[in-house]
Amino acid sequence: MERLLVLVRHGQSEWNLKNLFTGWKDPGLTDQGFAEAHKAGEQLRDLKLNFDLAFTSVLSRAQKTLGIILEELDQTGLETFKDQALNERDYGDLTGMNKDEAREKFGEEQVHIWRRSYDIPPPGGESLKMTAERVLPYYKAEILPRVLSGKRTIVAAHGNSLRSLIMELEGLSPEEILKRELGTGKPIIYRLDEDGKVISVQDLAA
Question: What gap in Å lies between CA 195 and CA 206, rounded to an integer?
Answer without folding.
Answer: 27
